[in-house]
Write a structure and sequence with these properties.
Order of helices and strands: HEEEEEEEEEEEHEEEEEEEE
Largest sheet: 7 strands, mixed
Distance between the termini: 35 Å
Helix content: 10-25%
Radius of gyration: 28 Å
Number of domains: 2
Length: 274
């Protein structure tokens, strides 16, 4: 751990200078702390660590045979970097470390009236070139790829909807919810949960049927028969594995012939598991 000691400062009789080397020291201290944390995570998840491997922390989804890459964050050479996106190229993306300046903070006028840009932002830019760069999209390694706990890091709520749905028609399924998985190049496991508040207080028992469809194909059905005077929460769970991006799901329901009742409210939640 790097730390600038201030115990010798006895203001105002003893002042401590803050030099350019002091600023460098502080910047390196922060870099060391971040590097230590990320390196420990890499070793915990993957079992080993290499300075020459670009580890993906977030984003950096590769598609089109390595030519398209989304923006993200990586850990490379013991340092953390943001990356930009590229698409519509002809070559496999090659990552080039590219500096830019903070337009708000720069330029600065020094004490001798010299003007310099000093607030530099280093990002890795995936570039459409035949050669060069520090690594290619093919070298990217998912920091969570070998982790038994990767679901902890990658779970995300794709959608949540809660609304009054009313009385379903008899023997004719109608759509009550629909959703589409993100079109981001990622294959997912998707946990779908439909929760319905059923009220059979209408004189006869209530037969309730729910259907989950992937595109137009039924992938999960569930049926329940509720007695007269019964009110209950009905839950239909389905885990869809290896779901391609931009996949459409729909949820339908209907009631069986000669039954009555109502669905006072239905809720749909969809959680993505990577």
């Amino acid at each position: 751990m790097k730390k600038i000691l201030t115990s010798n400062v006895v203001d105002p009789s003893i002042l401590q200078p803050f030099t350019a080397q002091s600023l460098r020291f502080l910047q390196e201290s922060k870099e060391d702390d971040v590097a230590g944390l990320i390196k420990a995570l890499v070793i915990s998840n993957l079992g080993s660590y290499s300075l020459t491997t670009p580890y993906v922390i977030s984003g950096c989804v590769v598609s089109d045979s390595g030519k398209d890459v989304t923006a993200g964050e990586i850990f490379y050479g013991g340092k953390y970097y943001q990356t930009t996106a590229v698409n519509g190229t002809t070559n496999v993306a090659r990552f080039i470390l590219t500096p830019s300046q903070d337009a708000t903070a720069d330029p600065l006028t020094f004490s001798n009236s010299s003007v310099f840009n000093v607030h530099t932002i280093y990002k890795y830019v995936p570039t459409d070139v035949v050669s060069g760069g520090d690594f290619t999209s093919a070298n990217l390694v998912d920091i969570y790829a070998g982790s038994s706990n990767k679901f902890t890091y990658y779970n995300e709520i794709l959608t949540y909807r809660d609304e009054t749905t009313g009385t379903p028609p008899i023997n004719t399924a109608v759509q009550i919810f629909t959703f589409t998985t993100p079109n981001d190049g990622k294959t997912r496991d998707v946990l779908i949960t439909l929760t319905s508040n059923i009220d059979a207080n209408t004189g006869v028992s209530f037969g309730y049927n729910t259907i989950i469809k992937k595109a137009t194909v039924s992938v999960s059905t569930n049926t329940i028969q509720k007695p007269i005077g019964d009110t209950e929460v009905f839950v239909h769970n389905y885990l869809a594995t290896s779901v391609a991006p931009n996949t459409v799901f729909s949820i339908e329901d209907f009631r069986t012939s000669a039954t009555s009742g109502a669905v006072r409210r239905s809720s749909l939640s969809v959680i993505s598991l990577f």
